[in-house]
Amino acid sequence: MRRFLFVACALAAAAAACSRDPGGGTPEQQAGGTRATSAPGEDPRRVIKEITVKAISSGETITVDGKLDEPAWAKATETGPFVDVASGAVNPRIPVQGSARLLWDDQALYVGFDVKDTTIRGGFPTDAPDPHLWERDTVEVMIDPDGDGDNKDYYEIQVSPQNLVFDSQFDDYNRPRGGNAGPFGHQDWSAGLTSAVVLRGTIDADEDKDEGYTVEARIPWKSFTKAKASPPAPGDAWRMNFYAMQNNGGVAWSPILGMGNFHKASRFGRVKWVRE
Hints:
It is a single chain. By secondary structure, the protein is mainly beta. It has one domain: Immunoglobulin-like. The chain contains one helix and 14 strands. Strands 1, 2, 4, 7, 8, 9, 12, 13 and 14 form a nine-stranded mixed beta sheet that branches. The protein is globular and about 50 Å long.
């Protein structure tokens, strides 16, 4: 079943096989990056990751080519390494690893992913509408613009190593849903994004050992039609999560710790938008 099972996997090695489910934990403190509102002895399920994302400086531009080599990206906010969705800790035994960087301006949100993956899988028809990318390799962004984590009017966007896109808008937690085969959410919604992928390896070629891939995406604010305010005003905070996926499992920025599946907005981290 598509990532709507709750976490029943053991931690550590077994966590890699969990189907699109929760995780959370205590993140590393990073300058300008992720921090957590935690206290000694606090239940990790109450910890919410937070990052502050600065707007692109005046005069700087982003060319969406998958390279993440513009000066703006060097100053972007970083999530740090994604973690085991069940334990909230970095787990090198999970076969896919990742991290993300974020930027914004008045027109769009920019997301850059760096994924480590020794077996890059694609295999979808290039003309397939909203292919089920989570069944192989993909990155994913979950976005709850209102920042309250109530799962009302949130968005799911995935980009695969083939640079294929799955995007959908949901009214409530996993709703609407048309059954195990979908549709999942309002798949007629389009993020209107521009994306590019750079591979460090070869898709679907077992004769070589891959290293991974990068994904660069520009998502126009105007696409978030259910948001109370889009673009956000400086100081606003949205709830978001980022995933690197393989075979319906993977790693996350903000884990869910058995409190739901990858759609659980109350486990999304807080992303605060600021200017210099």
